[in-house]
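Figure 3 (text version): structure tokens given as input.
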């Protein structure tokens, strides 16, 4: 199991402070959603957790400073699904998903039976097993998104970071992906995902990090985070909010008056 700890984390890109003062502890067995308006710093926060951007402050993976971790060790602990990934090589779906096993392979070694089983399971769970022989570059956007999710699952890491995994998916597959991510968390993984749909975030996530202008302005359960006041302040909207047990339905109704 993996715990990610952030202490006073900041990221500056060019002359702009994209993140500042981010502090939180992300524990295993939870599905954590990162939400916020466009340009708030959500994807930057996810990439900083992987050491893909220079940052100030401290990020620890299971207590070890991120900067001191070997890339291979980090890749086995934390799988990453970036947003809008472009495919350049005409690989079959099965071979593309198999790339998820690279962190576990020694140089010049082949796939073990365990690797093959992990690849097969990942394709089944992402609903792409029937596409195994197709060329990935010839798939639709939604099919490609599910194949890339399968590659991420094939890593078998105890933590999974996904940046907008619902983009390009139809409503049915959006629900399938969120059920899958929640199942990963229920099985003990730490799952952190950037989301835009507030109703889906409220329905599936155990916890939400609300980011605005590079700052963490709320970190709590969906019921505590998604209040009318915060929607007005952060998103500049009014919304119809209905509660069904512990599940919220959030429908934006208008831009909030200044």
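Below: residues designed for each position.
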């Amino acid at each position: 199991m993996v715990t990610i700890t952030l202490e006073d984390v900041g990221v500056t890109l060019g002359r702009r402070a994209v993140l500042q003062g981010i502090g939180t502890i992300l524990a295993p067995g939870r599905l954590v959603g990162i939400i916020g308006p466009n340009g708030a710093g959500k994807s930057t926060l996810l990439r900083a957790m992987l050491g893909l951007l220079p940052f100030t402050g401290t990020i620890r993976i299971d207590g070890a400073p991120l900067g001191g971790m070997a890339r291979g060790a980090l890749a086995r602990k934390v799988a990453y699904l970036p947003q809008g990934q472009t495919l350049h090589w005409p690989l079959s779906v099965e071979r593309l998903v198999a790339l998820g096993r690279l962190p576990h392979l020694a140089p010049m070694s082949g796939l073990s039976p365990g690797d093959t089983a992990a690849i097969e399971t990942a394709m089944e769970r992402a609903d792409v097993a029937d596409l195994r022989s197709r060329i990935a570059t010839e798939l639709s956007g939604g099919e490609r998104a599910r194949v890339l999710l399968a590659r991420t699952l094939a890593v078998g890491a105890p933590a999974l970071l996904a940046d907008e995994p619902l983009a390009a998916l139809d409503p049915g597959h959006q629900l399938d992906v969120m059920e899958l991510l929640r199942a990963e968390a229920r099985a003990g993984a730490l799952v952190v995902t950037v989301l835009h749909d507030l109703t889906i975030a409220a329905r599936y996530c155990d916890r939400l990090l609300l980011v605005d202008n590079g700052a963490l302005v709320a970190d709590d359960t969906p019921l505590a985070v998604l209040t009318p006041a915060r929607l007005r302040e952060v998103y500049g909207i009014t919304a119809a909010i209905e509660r069904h047990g512990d599940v919220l339905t959030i429908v934006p109704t208008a831009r909030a008056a200044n």
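The domain at 4-255 is CATH 3.40.50.300 (Rossmann fold).
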